[in-house]
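Morning F.,

Quick status update on the modeling queue. The single chain you submitted on Monday has been processed. Sequence for confirmation:
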Amino acid sequence: MVWLYLVERRSLTGNFSSWDGGGWVLSILVVGSVALDSVETPAGRRECTLGGACTYFATAASLYARVATVGVVGTDFPQEHVDFMRSRNIDLRGLQVVDGRTFFWAGRYGADMGDAETLDTQLNVFADFRPEVPADLRAAEYVFLANIDPDLQIQVVSQMNKPKLIALDSMNYWIYSKKAALTRALSMVDVVLFTEGEIKQYTEDTNLFSAAQRMFDLGPKALVIKRGRHGSTLLTRDENGSLCFFFVPAYPLECVVDPTGAGDTFAAGFLGYLASVGGEPDLVHMRRALVHGAIVASFTIQDFSIDRLRTLTLAQIQERYDALRKMTHFA
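Structure tokens below.
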């Protein structure tokens, strides 16, 4: 690839090895942004914290399975962040380090903790990012294509060796600016994670039923609708082609500190659970995975950046999982 000759490229290698049995094996590959964020919410402000979709996802998913990242950072990326990711057994061989500055985003949330107001975006080295999956990582069984240019998502899929499941996230910018490429990417994946507004924008259909059917006609087997504080919905098709709905509420919290990364850690709980149980994903496990997504996201928003995820355990996830099951059960 020509671009490799235009930059000084290094890789960050984890301090662990793969195992064929009795230990960690690579289950999940994530491609996306690794960033430094400055975030302001009603709870306070944090400057140059660790951020990016790839970071949030990998940190949370590493609780469930072995995770590898594909992304890019600049030479200004703090070593302490590298050390943290290594401490979580996150495989960093696909994380490129190039001369320049790391992708930077600054945002502010209002009192309702809704969508962030973007104050500054500096793509820096991320502007020229071209994903390259190391050969021995192409056998990952689960792939998460975080919110990046759909042409890059396609490049990643073309490098993989028949994973069990590929999930894709996107946003309104790509729907508007690169719809043709996004359509091709959607045809190559199994699960799509969109908001209801993004589904309707992409299909140009205000009716969720018909809009969802049009999404399924492209090829995906499942559609996850992210509703933020209102929870999430899993849409699938039965053997007759009719839509099947499964709803999960957001876990109730007394205080929300920072919603940044909630969608990415939702995806981490979803794919992480599926990777942990193994086998071909079925409807029962996908429904349970949706609950895990909601639970992991609920922890993420209780602190700035990935700070709550640093100490999160599977036992704590299980505790909230059981609590949410009791809240939603009825005879």
